[in-house]
Amino acid sequence: DHRDLHSFPTRRSSDLGKHKSVAEIRGEGLHQIIDLGHENGEPLSPFNSPPTEPMQKVAKVLMENNLITFVKWNTIYCCPPLIITEEQIMEGINILDKALNEADKFV
Fold first, then answer.
1. 6, 15, 23, 87 — which has fewest CB within 10 A?
2. Structural contact between residues 15 and 93, judged by C-beta atoms closer than 8 angstroms
């Protein structure tokens, strides 16, 4: 049932909150946003500025692992196709986990 999949990313993405670089995870259904920041509350990349090294590394890991997302400033926008399977969501979350490990090195 696709209705179950809409709550699945929210339940699973909470696992990504363990990363010290994750400031906030928010969204509705399959559309989720992950904001990254330092422990003092500063974003990993300032608003309306070129991407900083941490965000460049995050974007690189996502791209190298074939996870197509939109990375802008200190935010990762996750908007998968609505026909995605639970297995594909888990694969994406595992790739996000790798990328966030990179971000954690800068926090």
1. 87
2. yes
